[in-house]
Amino acid sequence: MDYDLVIPVAPKDVEMLPHCLAALHHLSPQPEDIYLVTPKAEPVEEVLKEADVKANVVLDTEVFDFAGKAEKPSWYQQVVKLFQTFSRSTYLVLDADTVLLQELRLFDGTGRILLGRFDFAGEPNEYYRQFMDEAFGLEPAIPKSLVSHHMVFQRSICHEMLSEFLLRHPNPNGTSDVEWFYDWLVEKGKDYEGYVSEYEAYGQLVLGRHRTIYDVREIATYEFTCYGGLRDIETNVVEHFSKAKAAGAAIMTIHKRDGSIKREWNS
After folding, report:
1. What is the pTM (predicted TM-score) of this model?
2. End-to-end CA, the chain
3. Higher-confidence residue: 118 or 153?
4. Domain 4-261 falls in which CATH fold?
């Protein structure tokens, strides 16, 4: 199945982007086209000059015209992941602070799309469950979280999600339906930052309604948080690469205070 790769790149991600791009050879199969979506082109273009990757740089404002008013850039980025229209209809979203360490198969032998689930994932958190219910009338299809910093989306299913939202929350103001969805998110989630997860909502929906198209597998993951500038990142990434590989991790993502493999990969 042909697919494109979409990598959202926030300013905080630029220093990790070279490591993300250098590991794209682990994708199986390889994408047709690669798009880097960012609020500012120059830093990303500088990274691309040194990278052995051909990619298209897309500005946030080129995706949706309400990008400039976005009060919560991280939530705007999630809307882009769900509803962008510049790529092929099947597209992989990979977070820019995520580095592949082993082959990442995106499809099984029958052509079904494989969702990756972090091996240490617990239940979907209460805010994500509340978001899924209030936005789409959706209950979790499995009792484990599907937040994994990468996911293959199909545009037809994203449209299905938007239609479900509009049935519950008709657009009252004449703006685009996607802008109305974003405005609704901002209003509903104004009291708590962690209200929205595009990965959780989409993953739970497809496992509940589209199991002939999607399946799920467990992925061993290594997490750490790197504070400081480029020098700290370079030092820590090299150190943690070796730790992650020794632990058998398939993905390294930069989030937690201390790097640790939560459980050996058993699949």
Report:
1. 0.91
2. 24
3. 153
4. Spore Coat Polysaccharide Biosynthesis Protein SpsA; Chain A (3.90.550)
